[in-house]
Amino acid sequence: MLPTLLQPQEQVLTTLNRDGSRHWLYPRLSPGRFLAARRTVGYVLILIFTLIPHLRLNGRPLMLLDIPRREFTLFGATFLPTDTVLLALFMIGLVTSIFLITALLGRVWCGWACPQTVYMEFLYRPLERVFDGPPGAGGKQGKKRTAVRTFAKYVVFLLASMFLAHTFLAYFVGVDALAQWVRQSPFHHPGPFLVMCIVTAAMMFDFSYFREQTCLVACPYGRFQSVMLDRDSLIISYDPRRGEPRISLRVLKAARSTNATADSSAAKVGDCVDCNLCVDTCPTGIDIRKGLQMECIGCAQCIDACDNVMTKIGRPKGLIRYSSQAGIDGKPVRILRPRLAIYAVVLTAILGGFTFVAATRAKLDISLLRGPGMPYSILDTGEVANLVRLKVVNRTEAPMTVRLELADASLGRLITSATSFAIEPRQTFQEGIQIAIPREKFQRTEMMINLKLIDETGAERIVTHRLLGPGPSAAKPARSAPAASSESKP
Description:
40% helix, alpha+beta, 4-stranded antiparallel sheet, disordered C terminus, 6-stranded antiparallel sheet, single chain, elongated, 17 strands
């Protein structure tokens, strides 16, 4: 135990005892309309998350984040690392969407769709109740623990974590590669096997030990809500004007048994009977009657619990309900407000820009890089040669033949193994070429030149490159460099 002087005056975290030890939460299940809706949404999301890696669109995975190859396939479209504008628009649009949804619906994501909540509340906790029984009064653990039941529970947790880890990895390696690894010995692929073990261990640690601490400690979303919410945002609220002052359930029953008035308006007491079920059923252990708190994830379990109690004692439902700070204070609730309009306009513009850039992006990514070694060389013909590495990426799903030539053939010539080359779908072609320009063309020590790439459809792309040279007054070197050999790397 901590010395008296060191003990905190208030509870710091719902999962932390005053002596600094872990306070384990075993939330009671409160049946109701919101739990039924969340359970349906949760299992649908689990099904979708499991099936997405197996679905294909236009012959490609519906979603594949291939990090080693730096290819990201989303809903049949493949994005490459060079899609920086699209990536920036996507990230800005994602952040703006979070601001808009939070300002309008509060933490609906946390309580209804976050994978941490969905898997914790609709997979691991139901499995836990099978072995430990439903939690008792005060959020206490149900059955008394035994070594056999505890061991069996963690074995099932491990199997669930392995399945979840394999599903998660399928988003990054694809189901075909994953199925091949599963059928082979781990010694054939030690690296991927180690990654699978690490992900499984992370899932096991999160859902069997860390649990709600992820929402309270690790996730920053709750701390951001203070700047994303306003007084008209949808939150779960306790109505103190109706609930206070509280009367205990014991006193209420005693009043009824003695035929005393139990009417809250006559007795000048609130509808809250201080049963504490809203606390016992909360997955993060908070008391919603203390007002909006960072730990509230908006799961609505306290609403179901309170509505059940109100029904039993003959009071109207809604003592705890979805509302807003303005609504609880009895003020008009504004659904349409300036910040929502601004978020909507910005998000529409971002989506429009993303769609335009995605629809108009080129079939080929072309880049010219200066070759290694000397900045230029003088050929036996007296021409100034610059070594350049051409890199072309085929974005399409079909082979493509590309022809390379100077935009102005009178300026010089290209020295390469071939001016026409084929590129496989989503492959990168690299070719070392020399651009030979007559020395008298260099009026200064550098000049700009345009290269033209023509695909098989006749579409042209112009790429500008800066060439270096000796300048008009430089003396001719006594020794000339031979033409560099080109190389091809598919």
